[in-house]
Design a protein that fits this description.
heterodimer; A: alpha/beta; six-stranded mixed β-sheet; four-stranded antiparallel β-sheet; 9 helices; 10 strands; 25% strand; B: mainly alpha; four-stranded mixed β-sheet; elongated
Chain lengths: 245, 392
């Protein structure tokens, strides 16, 4: 479970995150939805300890998150923006590196990697250098790497960016499978359809604040619209007007 | 496995697969330095040798006006070659170095010489050409010495002590030992060795920091339950490993290539035996962490691979500055200088090559100075890595 309360972070004069609170429970997929520059990535980076919050706190399974908090990071698997693989290493070596940094080794680690390679259907690409992998393959390796230590919680920053339709479908399957296994999945996206297709809960962020949150149905009711897209546009418009006034 | 060790293994594996890293660490420094060094030394020595033995080729015009002078010059090693057909065509011929020198003796030479008046000769030379310049100096010395001899004879014939015309006599007494003379040539060797450490670790340091950030792999890395200090430690140690391998290879290739340089033939000795090699290696060992820390620090500052590369060019020059200043001002080592990294290694290596004993205190001072600075730089690197800005 991931809990965020009153989170705020500023970079110089820019207030990237002003006030963000939400809870992403286990066994559900929570989508962080918002336009570009809304503060989604910063919120996630505060969660996985790349940044220290100015105010508020983020907790992973009840453990405080931050650059010094390695315990909270142990419970997390992270796929940051752009998979960030090592091109000279094979997919398997990329995954193994992170497994070893998690303190795993030997047959346990190799068995786990083989499991993940099968689950993500990487096939024989697992033994190839990731240089020249398609974006879809890279994301898959990134997810395998994030899952190598079997964390309860998975954070994905814009995982569908640059993926084709088939790759997106197969990514959805993977995430649904993980939800069924009881994982807490938090992912960010600026694509409404993506969130609508996959999420149990939606947190809409704009201008560094949470504008609305709830299940897609709740959001539609709240806005009094027929589709989630209309609700998103309406709620976002209201929030922007509030900020300006 | 400790996290830092996991990082070291991964950085080494990755670097071994990168042609650019391999080339610079394991080929460029170990081969380029010694090859260039041996080659330039060989040509330098060969030249010095040739000068004494080779006849001095000069075309002489109007030799019938001064048969004695020409005869004397020939007895001193001058070899006459065919002259251009007239004086007008001399400049062009000399510029083509065919021949390099033309000695022109005018028709009034004999008359003036007999009358004990200053008799002039002309020498055509292209002074922009090094070899011509050197030949000219030789000919000039010969002519001077003929002139001196003649004036001494003339004075004696007139009952004057020739010494009266020589107020000051310079007697050069060279006290340098053969090994010390070689050392002036070998001074540059220490620079090549220091350089090999920096070149060897350069791309590993860039790849592990700026490169990692540029590829976006730094972000997932810091999301792991591993302290950033451990990550820095791994990257630093991997850089040091490559610097060390590069140093060892460079030392080995120096030891081999210097055997083919005829140092002994001009009475010099460069003793790069196993004992001296071991001493040189020990002297340079404390510079390894310093080189790696410097490389890691500089690379950590840069945003991208390219930026890091251009910063590195500057970093590669830093260790050469103290050596250059010392070489230009002809400094003699003092205790203070023995604590200056790169300069102290330079002095110690020079002593080892000269076959002189190195006092333990100097060795410790040199090691201490380098390790201290390495420590300071490492603290800076660790601080830098703890900052949020690291991720960009």
């Amino acid at each position: 479970m991931i809990q965020v309360t009153g989170l705020a972070k500023r970079f110089g004069k820019v207030e990237a995150v002003r006030d963000v609170s939400f809870t992403a429970p286990d066994g559900r997929i929570t989508g962080l939805l918002g336009p570009n520059g809304a503060g989604k990535s910063t919120t996630l980076r505060l969660l996985y300890g790349a940044l220290t919050p100015d105010r508020g706190e983020a907790r992973v399974d009840g453990l405080l998150a931050g650059p010094e908090q390695t315990e909270a990071r142990r419970q997390l698997g992270v796929l940051p923006h752009g998979a960030g693989l090592y091109p000279h290493l094979t997919a398997r070596e990329n995954i193994r590196y992170f497994g070893e940094l998690h303190g795993m080794s030997g047959p346990t680690l190799e068995k786990r990697i083989t499991e993940l390679v099968a689950m993500l259907e990487l096939g024989e690409a697992a033994e190839r250098k990731t240089q020249g992998f398609s974006q879809g393959q890279k994301v898959k390796v990134g997810i395998a790497r994030a899952l190598v230590h079997s964390p309860r919680n998975l954070i994905l920053d814009e995982p569908t960016n640059g993926l084709d339709v088939m790759a997106i479908r197969s990514l959805r399957e993977v995430l649904r499978g993980l939800r069924a296994a009881g994982h807490c999945i938090l992912f960010s996206s600026h694509v409404m359809q993506e969130v609508a297709a996959l999420c149990d809960d939606v947190v809409i962020i704009a201008g560094g604040c949470v504008v609305a949150s709830g299940t897609p149905e709740q959001l539609r009711e709240q806005a009094g619209t027929a589709t989630l897209e209309d609700a998103f546009v309406l709620l976002l418009g209201r929030a922007t007007a509030e900020v300006q006034s | 496995m400790k996290p830092w060790w996991v990082v070291v293994r991964k950085e080494v594996l990755e670097s071994l697969r990168d042609r650019r890293t391999l080339l610079s660490a394991l080929v460029l420094a170990p081969l380029f330095g010694p090859l260039m060094f041996s080659f330039s030394m060989q040509t330098m020595l060969q030249r010095g040798l040739n000068d004494q033995d080779k006849p001095l080729q000069v075309a002489v015009m109007g030799k019938e006006h001064a048969p004695n002078l020409v005869h004397w010059l020939e007895s001193q090693g001058l070899e006459e070659v065919s002259a251009p057909k007239d004086e007008a065509s001399i400049p062009a011929a000399v510029r083509d170095a065919k021949p390099r020198l033309v000695l022109v003796i005018g028709p009034d030479y004999a008359q003036r010489f007999r009358a004990a008046k200053a008799a002039g000769v002309k020498v055509y030379v292209d002074s922009s050409d090094q070899d011509s310049r050197r030949d000219f100096d030789r000919l000039d010395r010969l002519l001077q010495s003929y002139s001196n001899q003649t004036s001494a004879l003339r004075l004696a014939a007139r009952g004057v002590d020739p010494g009266i015309a020589v107020p000051v006599v310079v007697d050069e007494i060279d006290v340098s030992t053969p090994a010390a003379r070689a050392q002036s040539l070998l001074a540059i060797l220490s620079y090549f060795l220091l350089f090999s450490m920096l070149i060897g670790g350069m791309y590993v340091a860039i790849d592990a920091t700026a490169g990692e950030r540029e590829r976006g792999s730094l972000e997932p890395l810091v999301s792991l339950p591993v302290s950033r200090d451990a990550l820095v430690a791994g990257k630093f140690i991997a850089t040091m490993a490559f610097s060390c391998v590069s140093l060892i290879l460079t030392l080995a290739s120096f030891a081999i290539s210097l055997r083919f340089v005829p140092l002994e033939s001009i009475g010099m000795s460069a003793n790069l035996g196993p004992k001296v090699l071991a001493g040189v290696f020990l002297t340079l060992l404390p510079f390894l962490p310093l080189a790696a820390a410097l490389l890691t620090l500089v690379a950590s500052f840069a945003r991208s691979f390219r930026e890091a590369q251009s910063w590195m060019t500057g970093a590669l020059l830093v260790p050469t500055l103290p050596i250059m200043v010392a070489a230009m001002t002809g400094m003699k080592p003092t205790a203070l200088m023995m604590a200056v990294p790169s300069l102290s290694q330079h002095f110690l290596i020079a002593r080892l090559l000269r076959d002189e004993a190195v006092p333990l205190t100097d060795g410790l001072l040199s090691a201490g100075g380098s390790l201290l600075l390495a420590g300071v730089l490492l603290v800076l690197v660790v601080r830098l890595w703890r900052r949020e800005k690291l991720l960009g």
